[in-house]
Specification:
This protein has about 475 residues and is α+β, with helices and mostly antiparallel strands. Among the domains are: about 110 residues, Alpha-Beta Plaits (2-Layer Sandwich); about 100 residues, Chitinase A, domain 3 (Roll); about 110 residues, Trigger factor, C-terminal domain (Trigger factor, domain 2, Orthogonal Bundle), CATH 1.10.3120.10. The chain is about 50% helix and about 20% strand. The protein is built from 13 helices and 11 strands. Strands 6, 7, 8, 9 and 10 form a 5-stranded antiparallel β-sheet that branches. The protein has a 4-stranded antiparallel β-sheet with strand order 1-2-4-3, with helices on one face. It has a two-stranded parallel sheet with strand order 5-11. Strand 7 and strand 8 form a beta hairpin. About 15% of the residues are buried. The C terminus is likely disordered.
Length: about 475
Amino acid sequence: MAVNQEVIDKNLVRLTYEADADKVEEGLAYSFQKNKRNFNVHGFRPGKAPRKLVEQFYGQEVLFGDAEEYIITDLYYGSIPELGLKPVSYPQNVKVTKMDKDGMAFSLEVYTKPEVKLGRYKELEITEVPSALTDEEIDQAIRSEAEKNARMVTVEDRPAETGDTVTIDFEGFIDGNAFDGGKGENFKLKLGSGQFIPGFEEQLVGANTGDEITINVKFPEDYHAEELKGKDSEFKVKIHEIQKQEIPEINDEFASDVSEFDTLAEYRADLAKKLAENKEKASKAAMTEEALKAAIDNAELDIPECMIDAEVAAEIKRTENRVGMYGMTLENYCQYMGITVEKFRENIRPEAEMNVRRDLVLEAISEAEAIPVSEEEFEKEFEQAAEYLKKTVEEVKEMFKDRRDDIAEEVKRRKAVDLIYETAVKVPAAEKQEPEEKAAEETKPAAAKRKASAQKAEEKKEENA
């Protein structure tokens, strides 16, 4: 076999192959074995006619199709390690220029993994995100828990207020005609929630139980239903009930109701510990994201469109699996979101490109830093997978025995992220300046000197006068 490699565009190479007579014979033999039951030769049962007789009867060319596919696949994948290529697409523009018993010649094109020119990725300046927990945050968390445990109480001695929940019947009209989707009965609406179009809930404030009122509102110009956009409408509304939240008193009894603790002090201490842990994680995640984005922005690379296409397809598959758990198809999901499948595909493309860019940069950093993966780290990955999949570690090892390289790459990427974060310089927000602000600050002394010099020159001029 002879193979020639030619770069024809960024990340796109053309490979030209020549196969000898022995390889062609190997391909023809494969094609015959695959198709022999399809040949009908008089005097022989299906699959029993000798190849030589089949070739005489049909012509040797009848075997070329599968023979060519066999030879192309075998030579292409066999040459990848030898050429040191890292393909990111399937072969395309395959052209067979010669095929006979003496040999075969063909060419194909394939996109390869782009070269990443790393910029600065260590000692990056990032904004410090405070992780210290305040008493106010603890108090707010306790209040939120109390609100979750609030009960609804019927209001009979006053009109509806913002924050109340009203039970209503309503029907909407445009130009005196009722429209689809504009009617509801015994609907519970929390005033101020923004659940209805602007102006609707506000006009219910001040109404009493039993009132029948008319509400005039205009549908927003960006309303999801095309036929209602920007239309003036009138709603007939009847108020059946007004309810308010009754929040429990925050004391030992409340603490015992919402937790396993007997006192408010114990509950507060446990909640504070959990909140502190969560805030510290959130702080680290935010700073890590900023540092990682800076490292990615500092790198230079040209990503082939096929890599982004593949990531879009993978995200669509993940979405299909996720919504499928709720008995929905991707089309159902998109319809629910008010978009087409094509629009959904378009919306996820920027994030897909960022995912590809991130992985390529992290891979380049792991190579530049020669990040290793120990057996202990492999073992930890297997243990975590076993716990998640509810299988034994040995079963997981058997499942992933051919994917150690993939596992290693994932571990290396995570360690590269850790390296970026751990070497970053955390600067308090009050001290950090945007580049434009910093440049302006640096020019102030010079500007001040020029102004002082000009003022002295003016004073001297007046003295001379």
